[in-house]
Amino acid sequence: MSSAPHQRQHLYVRDTGVGQTVLFLHGFPLSHTMWDDAIERLAPAYRCIAPDLRGFGRSAPVHGPVMSMETYADDIARTLDRLDVTHAHVVGLSMGGYIALAFAERHAERLRTLTLVDTRAEAEDEAGRARRVQAATSLLEVGRAAFARDMITKLVAPGAALELRARLATLIEAAPYESTVAALMGMKVRPDRMHVLRELAVPYLVMCGELDALTPPELSRAMAAANGRSELALIPGAGHMSPMEQPDMFAARLAGFLERHA
Ligand code: MLT
User: Fold this and answer.
1) Pocket residue to mutate for ligand 1, from 25, 26, 28, most atoms within 8 A of Cβ
2) DSSP one-letter string for 170-236
3) What pLDDT sits at residue 61?
């Protein structure tokens, strides 16, 4: 296993395992460590690459008002170049899914398959855009601890283990304010990308926790219905953080899909 920090302008990357590359894109405002359980299960068969998106985890902080999904996606393409990876199975959760869709649109030739986890393809409506500004304002008013507490109630299914809530609290409270605000502003302006799914030329898997309150299963059903190349997997007992909440079931479904398309 190798796990090396890179220079300031580079994204920090966890890079482990051997085989076809699976690229894991984390959710907001977390870090690559949200994929630790999945990577442990997949690394015996795949090279698993999990970056910290710009501004999060061990990557350098963001300076600027907006981090667009396109900018994150282009960061990822440059990171794959640096790691000599031409093609990857791309897996993204929630904001990582928005970025995966932007990557699929801008770097389609590099995709082996696409897996969208607890996410959506639509742009924000007017109310959603207002909620992004409200979230950024509230973060600055109440601070990271209260922001994290509120967010965690929406991220996991009722009854989720204390240990999981604690991991999420640590991640959310570690995110720099400017990175979190810039990501919110980027999610606010992201365009609709349902057409990317309709036009996708590779197989794709849509996964969602059955109890996901933030991006409920009907959104996943709609994404899976966009194109005949799709598979849909709903994960019982999981909320929005299905890879962390039900790691065995999540990894088994993902591994089955990857095996069919490796
Ligand atoms: C995430 O988990 O990345 C966020 O819930 C995404 C969002 O706020 O839309």
Assistant:
1) 28
2) HHHHHS-HHHHHHHHHHHHTPPP-HHHHHT--S-EEEEEETT-SSS-HHHHHHHHTT-TTEEEEEET
3) 85
